[in-house]
Amino acid sequence: MSSSSSQMLTKFESKSSRAKGIAFHPKRPWILVSLHSSTIQLWDYRMGTLIDRFEEHDGPVRAVDFHKTQPLFASGGDDYKIKVWSYQSRRCLFTLNGHLDYVRTVFFHNELPWIVSCSDDQTIRIWNWQNRSLSTSPTSF
Q: What is 71-131 written as a DSSP string?
């Protein structure tokens, strides 16, 4: 795509807090936005409407990611926690504890039941979200 044909499709403005992370839903016209205010917002980007808000983190939420096939998303934040949510039931299903500092990134694996996270505690951790446990943590990187 040439720069002359590039154009902004839509714009969202936060009236309440700074955005920290964002993720596209793999099939629906949705985006998740993680906010400094400890809130996660689910938006319909075609309609420009807020669908839902999720609030269980204690502090800023830095990262979000949708699962590719399940009605789930994960979030990580300054409370050192990773939370796995159901957007169908609109609630947090469980929390993964283990990081010792801010969680900066969370991603679902495309095929395996894993979430990978990285933190200011200088670790990368791989979690099995189906059995809610730590699968592995590289010893150095």
A: SEEEEEETTS-EEEEETTTTEEEEEE---SS-EEEEEE-SSSSEEEEEETTS-EEEEETTT
C-alpha–C-alpha distance, residues 13 and 20, integer Å: 13
CA 100, 126, 76, 123 dihedral sign is positive
Report yes or no: 106 and 113 within 8 Å, Cβ to Cβ. no
Which tens digits make up the pLDDT trace of 101-126? 999 999 999 999 999 999 999 999 99
Q: What is the CATH number of domain 19-136?
A: 2.130.10.10
Q: What is the token pair recorded at 38?
A: 């400890």
User: Contact 41/32 with Cβ under 8 angstroms?
Assistant: yes
Residues 109 and 123 sit within 8 Å (Cβ to Cβ): no
Whole-model pTM: value is 0.88
Take residue 20 and report the two structure tokens written for it. 């920290």
What residue ranges do the domains of the chain occupy?
Answer: 19-136
